[in-house]
Amino acid sequence: xxxxxxxxxxxxxxxxxxxxxxxxxxxxxxxxxxxxxxxxxxxxxxxxxxxxxxxxxxxxxxxxxxxxxxxxxxxxxxxxxxxxxxxxxxxxxxxxxxxxxxxxxxxxxxxxxxxxxxxxxxxxxxxxxxxxxxxxxxxxxxxxxxxxxxxxxxxxxxxxxxxxxxxxxxxxxxxxxxxxxxxxxxxxxxxxxxxxxxxxxxxxxxx
Length: 207
Known about the structure:
The chain is of the alpha+beta class. It has 2 domains: 14-38 and 146-206, RNA polymerase, RBP11-like subunit (Gyrase A, domain 2), CATH 3.30.1360.10; 40-144, RNA Polymerase Alpha Subunit, Chain A, domain 2 (Beta Complex). It is built from 3 helices and 12 strands. A 4-stranded antiparallel sheet has the order 1-2-12-11. It has a 4-stranded antiparallel sheet with strand order 3-10-5-7, covered by helices on one side. Strands 4-8 form a two-stranded antiparallel sheet. Helix 1 packs across helix 3. The chain is globular. The two termini are 39 Å apart.
């Protein structure tokens, strides 16, 4: 049976499509994979060199982890590690440190948005730190989720669904969808491989 897919809405952050002749089990599987199984790059470790702001080191590291990191999801290896440096001092007056102040070691891997506030410094205060981004999945922590919203709605004919989701900014929504489908296919392939290995092992022991 061939799936019928109709694109309903698409932009740089969100995608919505209608799909016919598909089971609710598969649609729910896709949703769960999009949320928790897609390998995604995010800041996972922060080395604080100096922090004289009023924000605790732990809160600063937490905020950094929630900044979406923009990269090429389909062409980035799952063992990729990215590095950022930041050193900002408020010399003349109050100053806000933004995500644009994170200097990446790789210009192709950078914060998805430049104006996410990290911390406000008063005159004379300073922050200096290094941040390390790694690839993990949303099942380990929410900061590794590539989507902020992911839903589906079953239509009256029971075999048609509207699937909608929104990217956090890590990559284009269509590339996130392709990555999700890739995860599903690889999972089924691995399961099938293991089953065949078990059958072969059982056959060899019988003989």
